[in-house]
Amino acid sequence: MEGIEKNRFAARKKSLAFQKQKLIFVLFTLPPVLLYVAFFIYPTITGVYYSMTDWDGFSKKFNFIGLDNYITILKDSRFLNSISFTLYYTVLDVVLKLLIALFLAILLSGKVKWRGFMRSVYFFPAVLSLIAVGLIFNQIFYTVLPAIGEALDIEWLKDNLLADKSTAVYGIVFTNLWQGVAIPMVIFMAGLASVPQDLREAAIIDGAGPFQRFRSITLPFLIPMLNVNLIIAIKGAITVFDYIVAMTDGGPAQATESVGFLIYRHGLNEMKFGYGTAEAIYVFLLIAIISIVQIKLLNRKEAGQQ
């Protein structure tokens, strides 16, 4: 009987310890779950609801109009033009940014003189405000470069790039590259540090060239970092806003009106909050589809996978 009582006491003690562990788990999990619901799930649900109304963002009365906003958007030439500009800008920005970031990461991961100082120099633009950088480059394109073009008699430098519909996008892309290369560069450098040194040495002994070593050894270890960089870069390019506001304000003649900027214009300037929210839902779906496809394609090439 005494042995049975001891076993019951031990079982009860174990059960209480397990329940206490579960309670601690719930208490630690509950705050982030509540924050996630409050700041993501609830705004998403209300956003979807408001996208199916004609709410102007301020009045208490509005009408439920179903999918009218979504149908109208697909026929809106201004929205379609902004999508065209945004996708073109995204391709330019993402491809150039990741190529430059990868080149700098490889360069600064090697034996370079003053490597620590050079890393700090290249990372410095990342700590600056996007609006501040946009305003600075706006003045550079408006006053500095034309003056240099006049002094050196270089025809294409004499005009402000941002004032021409055909070249304004390149000025914005250049500004983004100057500031935006730092973060993907650091992420790539972390990936390069994870490549086993013995694999590199074995490849050199086997006579593999630099390109072969990069393609067969380094690149597979960089796939997870490339995934992260692609998602961040694509999301940032599709939702570009600060540079547009600071440099062109959507001009000239709405030529640089990105989707993010158009949503802002419709929602806050033109008092079409429901319409702007529907546009934001389209952008969310676009980013989600691109990210899913990109992750599935790149995960097949990750190191250790067939």
From TrEMBL:
<keyword id="KW-0472">Membrane</keyword>
<keyword id="KW-1133">Transmembrane helix</keyword>
<keyword id="KW-0813">Transport</keyword>
<dbReference type="Pfam" id="PF00528">
    <property type="entry name" value="BPD_transp_1"/>
</dbReference>
<dbReference type="GO" id="GO:0005886">
    <property type="term" value="C:plasma membrane"/>
</dbReference>
<dbReference type="InterPro" id="IPR035906">
    <property type="entry name" value="MetI-like_sf"/>
</dbReference>
<feature type="transmembrane region" description="Helical">
    <location>
        <begin position="280"/>
        <end position="298"/>
    </location>
</feature>
<feature type="domain" description="ABC transmembrane type-1">
    <location>
        <begin position="83"/>
        <end position="294"/>
    </location>
</feature>
<feature type="transmembrane region" description="Helical">
    <location>
        <begin position="87"/>
        <end position="109"/>
    </location>
</feature>
<feature type="transmembrane region" description="Helical">
    <location>
        <begin position="23"/>
        <end position="45"/>
    </location>
</feature>
<feature type="transmembrane region" description="Helical">
    <location>
        <begin position="216"/>
        <end position="238"/>
    </location>
</feature>
<feature type="transmembrane region" description="Helical">
    <location>
        <begin position="121"/>
        <end position="148"/>
    </location>
</feature>
<feature type="transmembrane region" description="Helical">
    <location>
        <begin position="168"/>
        <end position="195"/>
    </location>
</feature>
<keyword id="KW-0812">Transmembrane</keyword>
<dbReference type="InterPro" id="IPR051393">
    <property type="entry name" value="ABC_transporter_permease"/>
</dbReference>
<keyword id="KW-1003">Cell membrane</keyword>
<protein>
    <submittedName>
        <fullName>Sugar ABC transporter permease</fullName>
    </submittedName>
</protein>
<comment type="similarity">
    <text>Belongs to the binding-protein-dependent transport system permease family.</text>
</comment>
<dbReference type="GO" id="GO:0055085">
    <property type="term" value="P:transmembrane transport"/>
</dbReference>
<dbReference type="InterPro" id="IPR000515">
    <property type="entry name" value="MetI-like"/>
</dbReference>
